[in-house]
Amino acid sequence: xxxxxxxxxxxxxxxxxxxxxxxxxxxxxxxxxxxxxxxxxxxxxxxxxxxxxxxxxxxxxxxxxxxxxxxxxxxxxxxxxxxxxxxxxxxxxxxxxxxxxxxxxxxxxxxxxxxxxxxxxxxxxxxxxxxxxxxxxxxxxxxxxxxxxxxxxxxxxxxxxxxxxxxxxxxxxxxxxxxxxxxxxxxxxxxxxxxxxxxxxxxxxxxxxxxxxxxxxxxxxxxxxxxxxxxxxxxxxxxxxxxxxxxxxxxxxxxxxxxxxxxxxxxxxxxxxxxxxxxxxxxxxxxxxxxxxxxxxxxxxxxxxxxxxxxxxxxxxxxxxxxxxxxxxxxx
Length: 332
Hints:
The chain is of the alpha/beta class. Helix content is 36%, strand content 19%.
């Protein structure tokens, strides 16, 4: 198989490239050159925000069985790439997001849930949900519904994470001491390891799948307690997890999801939208999710190769709780 990865040096894109190389695929990447791509790929330089950003791709020889695109900004960049490649690639896989559904989607939502309104394939950057939906429209417009795959990912964790969720929990717990653990302990979580997402994407290309897929672990794949226990185990920390009722956290003005990454209150619209998607379509087509302990352990091992500090995307807000706020809630 011949893969063209638009990006390929960070987080999800890198996971896709490494998985493809492990399968013996021929891999080409197009990126800005700000990070070194994995060894063994053909590298093309191009900035998709620039007027001539696809020039190297247009001049490159050959074609591809599949294109994978993770673009998150102005949909017109997906439009331009997809139009350029529609006669040179067999399939276009666009890594989208569950955020494309009209907010808030009801717990248990499927791929049939209504999408957000106001998105356009021709748009400049607007907001995350409409940008991702616009990217979907651009992919389908160029490759039609039979040759496009829309990967509606939920929470993504794992090595190379540059958003700051699991790395924040790992570094916080590694510091040790009393840790504000947002309850309840048995709160069910959904997420997908970037490597499991990558394997499903490559399998979808091999099987010539098409259409939208909610790509996230089955409901209750793990719990908040299991996630934080795994962080304690992986780091070897003496951290003391102090499980705290959701009401106390919210009364303290702490923001779910951002100040306490991954966590949202149970029985809330947020939990229904972020941790209660129906993923039966993805599971039926090969999605397999590794245990949370493996995701956590491998992410911690990767962080150690960087000196403990994870990269942070400049277009994503910083995550985590101020130590003084944590201490106050815990009564320290």
